[in-house]
Each structure stands twice: as C-alpha cells, then as structure tokens.
C-alpha cells in the first residue's frame, strides 16, 4: 500500500525500528483477527458448507467481503483500500469515497496522474455506481437507510469546510480558486493563494507593490521642494505685505496686494476756514475736500492710498482715500523732496499745511497767495519758468492750466516781495525756486546778467523791522535753470502772524535780474497731534463719515451691522459727494458673488454626481451578471464579524451645541441688523433688499447642509455606527453606513494617536461653522473664499489640506515610494486642463464682475496667464493627491482618542460609453477612513489575515 501520511499525529511519531520475521508474523495475525472481528460485526452471518477435504477453510470469511468499502452501499460491493489513519483502528475506503471524504489528502496521492486520467476515473466510477444502484433498486435490494445517509453525506460534503490545510495540516477551508484546502493564516499570509497564486480578497495581506521608479521618486521630491518654497515664499510675502503696508492718518487699511501710497492728493484744509483759526492745529477730518485754485487758502498736499475702490471710483475721486503717515516699503525707494519726481509726501509727525502757495500762473491764487507788497516784480517768462514744479496733487482743480510765468525782478531802487502775516506758531518750511540772471554776452537778452546782488530771506513780526535769516549768493544761483530752495523757519519767527520777505539788497539797475517761482510756505501741525485727545475725537468722526459713505454706496467695506449702525438709508447720504443710489443697487457685491460661486459649484457637483452615479451604476448592472452561488456561499465557512463604533454622547452633544449656537447667534444678529424683529413686533411694513434676502437664504442653506453633514456623516448622531467585515470570496467587502468597500482595495491599517484625532476634529468643526452666512453679513473676502473652497472640496477640505502637508513634508522612504506611485497615475494631463480652465473662468469672472473702471489689456493678459499656470499646477497636484490617502472619511463618534486609519482605494468606473481609463483614474482616489471601534484588535487581526480557522 503506497499511501502518503500527512497528518499531524503521524508527523509527530518517532521512526519505527526494523521488524524481525517473528514480529511481522504476529502483527499480521493480530491484524487479521481485528479485521475479522470488524467484519463479523458488520456482515450478517451466513451458513457456509465446508468442503470434505478441508474443514479448516469452511470457517474462513471471504477476503472480498472483508475489504469492501465501509462508506459505499452493500449492493455496490466496491473493494476499498485500507486507510489506517481513519477512525480508531482504520477503515477500508474506495477511491471515490476517499476523495469525497478527504479531498486534500486524496489530491496529494493523485498528483502523479494527469488531469485527463483523473477526470476519466471519476466519470467511470460515477457511471458504475449509478448503474449498480439502479439495478439494486429494480431488484428491491437497496438499503434505504444507507441511501438516506449517503445522500445527506453527499449534500453535506459537496464542499466540506473542515479538512486539513495542505500547508500546515491544521483545519482548512475550501478555496474555490484552486479547489484545495488552506487555513486562514496560510491563505492570507502572502496576499496570494498558496495553491494557484491568485490574489486573495484581503488587501492588507503582504503582497509586493509595484516599484515607482527613480524618476517618479525624484519628481516627488521636486514637487515637495517646490511646494515648500512656494508656501514659504507666499507666507513671507504676506508677512512682508502686512509689515510694510502703509499706515494712514485715520487708521484705514489700504486695499490691494502690496498697496502703495501712489495717489497724490490736495486737500482743502478744513474747508478753507484757515489753518489754526480754531487753535487746533490738527489734520483735516474726512470726508476730504478737494483743493480749489480760487477758494482754497490752506492746503494739505501729500501721498495717499485708496481704502475703498468702489467709493473712490463712484465719488469721482473725492472720497475713499486716506493720507499716509508712513510707508516702510516706499520710504527707501521714493524721495521725500517735493521738487523730485514722484515724491513720497508722508503726513507724519512733522506734517504741515501749506498756508501760502503761488505759482504765478493765471488765474492768480489770491486766496492761497496773500502778498502784502511786490516791488519791481512782474509776472513774466523773461527769465524762464521752473520746468519741474513741485507736486500739488494729481486730482482736483489745483494744478495750473499751463506753466508760463514766474515772478521776475528788474527795475531800480528796490526789488522785493513781502507776504502777509501767517500762522507758523509751530514752525514750518519755506520752499521756492530761485534763478539769478546767467552770464551772457548777448545785449538783447531779457534776463540780464547778475554780477552782484545777493538775495536775502527775512521774517517780519508784525510791523517791526524784518530780520534776515538766510542769504543766497549770486555765484551759486546764477545760471539758466531754477534751483530748488528749502529752508526751515527759525524758532524766533514762530508766531501766529509772521510775514516773509524776499529782497535784493544791492544791485545794478541795468542788470542783476532774478526770479522766483513756485513759492510755498508750509506750517507745521501742533507737536504730538497724532496722540492727542482732540485728534482721537476727530478720528472717530472721520471713521463714522467713512462708514456712512461706504454704506450709502453699499460697498464691500460696509457690513450689515455697519449699515444698521450708520442708518445708511437716511437722508444723510445726500451729503456724500457724488452719491447716486442707482450705482450701488445695480452692482453685485463680492460677498454675494461668493455665494453665487458656491451655488454654481453645488449645482455642478450635483449634476456631475447624477450623471456619474446613476449612469455608471446602470453600466455596471448591465455588464455584471447575477451570482448563482448562494447555496455554495452558505456552505463555505469564512469569517464574518460585526463591529460597532465607540459612541460618546457628551462629545456629540458638545459639537452639535457649538455649531448650532453659532448659527443661531449669527441669525439673531442678522435679524437685529435688518430690523426684522422690530417689524414683526410693530406689525409694520419694512423695506428689505430682495437680492440680499435671497442670497442670505442661499447662504443659510449651504451652512445648514454643512452642519448636517458634520452631525450626521461625521458625528453619526442618528444611530450607532455599525459595519460588517465579510471575508467570503464572493463578498470580500466591508459594509459601513450602506457603503460597500472591497477588501481587495484596502491597502493599510494604522493606529493614530489623540493629537491626530484632535487636529482632525478641529478641521471638521471649523468647516462646519456658518462661514457662508458670515461672509455675506460681514462682507468678508476671506470667509467667502473659505465658503467656496468648502463647496468645491467638501466638508473635509481643511482635513485634506492637513493630510496633504503630512505627505509633502514626509521624509520616510516608504512614503516617498507611495508619492512616486501617485505621480505615475493616469489622467494628470486632463487634470491640468480642467484646473487651468476652471481657475481661468472663476478668476477672470471675478475680475470682470468686480472692476469699477477700465481694465488694461496687458493686466488682463497677465492675470489670465497666472490663472492658467496656477490652476494647471493645482489641478496636477490634486490629481497626484488622489493617489494618496488624503481624502478623509472620518467617523468621529467619541472624544479624540486612539483611532484606526484604514486606507482604501475608491475605484471609479468611467460613466461614458468609451470607458476611458484616464476618466476612471480622475474619479478614483485613495480614502483614509478614521474610526474607533469597540474591538480594535479583532478588527486588526481580521483585516490583516491573522485569523483562526
């Protein structure tokens, strides 16, 4: 008997010693007695007539009866082979019964036979048994009890479920892929079946990953380095922008990225009432008034920045700007000299008011140039004019029509010009341009050469004699061009009525001509004005005026609460310069535009999901056939377990209260600002902006949807979270919240600590706050962008950003390999096109919808190129990140603690008729499921294949 023994007991037995002839004879005798006793108990006794010549043979039982198969019915009379390892003392079994009872061991004995021979033997045995049973049934000799037992045995052992494992000889389970028996630890150990090397349905089993390649890994490092550099550069630029942003007089923020004080303005100081008339010596309050050439006597000329683009454009440049006190970014690059090109004129601590200004052009500046006396001075261009006049503001009617005249001194006896007394009690500066007749041999020149006659500058206190405090030599200022002169007023001349005199002491009447141009006297403000109580009061009044103007024009700088506080619909708006209610009503606000983008993103995603989900599901149902193996599934014994998430009501109620109370508080503030409660209480008809109400309802709907997603899908407050893991080959999936996750797509299972859980929880809670309604009521650009990102990338967009940073900054070699494999995904080119297109549409739509004036074509082209490059790079980055587990599917049902993170690949199918691989990859992504269950170790062992059969 050439039988191979593969049982654990036989392998454990020691090697037997060699038998002697006597021992072998005794063993055979004992075996024959044991078989005879066994057959006597099974075979009915028959009378056998002994032959005359041998009485001993008459008492023997036929060997054919003794060696019959113990499992076959008696009518088959099948000879069996003795199987010593079956039962306590061994049994005789025929080959078909042995194959049916113990297929794993029988399979090993048939490995030397061909497949055709094995199938032929089975067919022959089946035909023979069928014919024998049919004949016995016709003769009436069938054992019905044995037939019933045989049928039950055949049904129960069609796919026997507890046979020894071919690998370790423990209890095995039938594996349909190779028709062999393996226990769970051996079957799930390597990720492939030990018999046929087919992939097992368990994805976490250790199977080799495709190498990403050196190029892909290097590209991952380059992308990480580029993202880090861009991020650090962006943060540095934002920080530098905040630190070096201009500071204005009344504390308004300059608008735009890297704002500059490039707006040169001239402000009529206190409406022409006169500098220091009230003794305040403080800056003019907003709203500023433009300088007027005829009526303005005291002017403030300085560099300003725009604080409200819409208000500045709609008021025709009259309001919406503020003077700069400091501008760190420009102080090193722009000159502070008023005579230079594009000067930076800061309204700093030493700021002042021009109490005297004369350019000697027509019409004459009578209000701002109070000359007491001019002797032998004429308005002419005989000595030329100053070709580079100082900055007087680039808006308003303060600039001269032309530059044609200067004050030229000729004649005899006296040559001087003296101003009226002016208030310079806090000091100041005198600025003017001086030219003395150049050397010339031309006798017909109008500006005669000066060989002598220095020019003195004197101050006069009342009617007393004037005192010289500056002298300008002929040799230094003689030439063909005007030279700029700036001199500080001496402290002895500080008073509220000081006059100034320009005089040529000695001269030749026939020559020694000289000229003045652009004479200005600037009086300083009171020292410490920036920190005085009076200025604080003026600042409050100015801020109130600025809010009134913003709310009257209904710009983005006016929130709903500001509108309530300023009562912007009152008749006060008539005092706002250039106010026109039709302008503000006919234009969509940026906050409303943000909600519109949210609505477009929501509708686009809904339409895409409808097409993708329903059409793709129909394609799958059409291509997939129903399985007819329900009975086989029921017979095969594979692990199946149910798990429940750890639920803590205190955590769920706390987060719910935080989100709902924030929404309720915001709604209450909004209702109060719109006078809705007063209208309901008084039962009166109130005016409401229909567009604003409609947009508010849309924003509320988005916020309610976000809160519901957090409470129902993340916190799972409706019912306890339950999911089932089924390892059966025909199922091989994990079912959770109505979603089936194939176990073959599960790639990793890791344990993360409480810090990770806290960060993830904060990301979800922040994303669930009512940012859409908040951006609308506060007119906040930042909250509006957050609302748009939430609609585009879903509630976990902050968590995705957090996980992206982890992968980008990771230095682990295995993580870099995963990053490299993600770079090799298909569809990245399509992602670039989609990202560039969407970013260009959104960016250019925002620019065109929000512009308040003409947009330069070059600026628009540059903006379009930036949108294409940035959007394309962002689209490629999103495509790469789809190959990494950065899309969280979190079930945060308890306070942050240790969680299991299960990574699986959510594989999608292209919904179109062509089944594009790139389209399918674009819609597929790696998902990171975060959950805390009651039996962590059992779940881990089950998903990793560490199971008992």
From TrEMBL:
Pfam families: Reelin_subrepeat-B. InterPro entries: Reelin_subrepeat-B. The keyword Transmembrane helix applies. Residues 1-25 are annotated as: Disordered. Keywords: Membrane, Transmembrane, Transmembrane helix. The chain crosses the membrane at residues 219-240, 649-668, 680-702, 756-776, 788-809, 829-849, 861-884. Residues 1-13 have a biased composition (Polar residues). This is Uncharacterized protein. The lineage of its organism: Eukaryota, Sar, Stramenopiles, Ochrophyta, Bacillariophyta.
